[in-house]
Structures are given as C-alpha cells and as structure tokens.
Amino acid sequence: LARRGCILENYPEDVLMPGERRSTLAKSKGIHDLTIHERFKLANALKNDALTIKSVATDARKSLTTSRVPVIVGEAPIANSLHTRGRRGFANGRIDRFGLTRLANASSSK
Predict the structure, then answer these.
(1) For the chain, how many structural domains are there in total?
(2) Does some domain include residue 91?
(3) Domain range enclosing 81
(4) How far apart are CA 100 and CA 59, in angstroms?
(5) Is 105 inside a domain boundary?
C-alpha cells in the first residue's frame, strides 16, 4: 500500500490487521489467520463501501513508506469499547491505538 501511495481507511475494529499475529499461530499465513467471522466482517466492509482506499499525492508517499503516516486507519471503536481510539497500521508493521476517537454513546448525545 505504502509504495503505491494508498491508505486503507475504516478497517474493521475487531478484525486482525495485516501483519498482526494471532497468538495461537506459530507463523502468519495472511488471510488464513482470520477467523470465519473476521473474514465475513472484512468482506462486508468491502461490499458496503465502508472500507475504502485513498490515494495520496506522489510527494506524500515518502511519509507512508517511512512510517510517519499510517497506511491503514481503523474504524472508530464503538461507544462501549474498552479502547478510546482506533487502530492505525504502518508500513514498518507497527500498530498503535492513536486512530479515530471512540464513537459517542447515542443516549448521551441527546
């Protein structure tokens, strides 16, 4: 993604991110690391246009390839999530929790 100048936006919150390892597996096997439920969530995000690919300008690609800017931006966590912010994935494999802010509780916004 980084070399092509692309950012994947709204990656589903509870789906293993690319490069993220499932503790029960000895080595990563890509999409096969995902549970059936995670595969369906990912497929639905693609079908419903929730998961999108954004192209960045040529001069901004260096920020992606040097991991200053995330190549994957996860969706915001739901209101009752333990996490206050969403995940971000970088070209160097680092994943953090400094992404989108957790969604507000619907009853508190009234």
Answers:
(1) 1
(2) yes
(3) 6-96
(4) 25
(5) no
Residue 77 near residue 15, CB atoms below 8 Å? no
* DSSP strand pairing (95-96 vs 72-74): unpaired
Find residue 72's DSSP bridge partners: 8, 89
Which has more pLDDT, 107 or 35?
35
Residue 103 lies in a domain: no
User: How does pLDDT run across 11-24, given as a tens digit for each residue?
Assistant: 999 999 987 877 77
Q: In this structure, what DSSP letter does residue 35 have?
A: -
Tens digits of residue pLDDT in 23-63: 776 666 778 888 899 999 999 999 999 999 999 998 889 99
* Sheet strands side by side (includes 52-55): 52-55, 6-11, 72-74, 88-89, 95-96
- The alpha-carbon radius of gyration of the chain (Å, integer) is 15
